[in-house]
């Protein structure tokens, strides 16, 4: 059965890998992100694109209208939009407190507000039964990351997902969170990624002896969206090669 799949942050990294996985199954995919050129360059066969800042309610209303016109119902909603804020424009001025306020606000907007606004805008369109909502958290939500605002923002998604699972469960909709460890080949760490030494350290933290790939996370999202995962809800699935336990 062809499904309608909405993927925020679908133009790069994990969201793009997920888009390719679902499109390869014959599903109809809508890619969302702020940069139209990035979405267009993603070149996922048959995918629709819509550029929007998902932390902005007006933009999200635009997405909801587009989804209503193009899809009607949404079978799978994947929230891959996010980031640690380091690539966003800095606070103006020199006051350190302004910089702290800006950093925490940016992280909340990127990681929590994007997911919450899009969910609330599309909730009534989720397929009943069978709908799937999937959030992207992080290993940082469990153990910090040096970017405390990012870790806290990701952790904030967990109770939202649990609450949503309770609200939507009676409608046959599951809600789960995937929390990756370090994943390479994404835009998360900027154009240069992490340096070799840092990458080797991150690989050494795992039990598998390697860093994660966007495909690792996409495969988990695809599994959680499958009919066979219908009784899995309100879970946080860690995809980190065992790194969270530490070494
Ligand atoms: N890479 C890792 O090691 C890692 C580890 C754990 C968790 N994660 C999480 O996994 C998710 C995917 O990240 P990724 O690694 O694939 O990084 P990525 O390549 O940077 O993807 C993030 C995407 O989110 C979009 N985005 C950011 N803010 C947005 C907004 N306000 N509205 C709409 N779209 C927005 C970005 O596009 P635009 O800039 O064009 O909007 C970008 O395509 C994120 O939530 C991230 O926190 C990543």
From TrEMBL:
GO terms for molecular function: oxidoreductase activity, acting on the CH-OH group of donors, NAD or NADP as acceptor. SUPFAM superfamilies: NAD(P)-binding Rossmann-fold domains (SSF51735). Gene3D superfamilies: NAD(P)-binding Rossmann-like Domain (3.40.50.720). Residues 3-186 form the Ketoreductase domain. One of its GO terms (biological process) is fatty acid elongation. InterPro entries: KR_dom, NAD(P)-bd_dom_sf, Sc_DH/Rdtase_CS, SDR_fam. Pfam families: adh_short_C2. Belongs to the short-chain dehydrogenases/reductases (SDR) family. This is SDR family oxidoreductase. It comes from Streptomyces sp. SID14436.
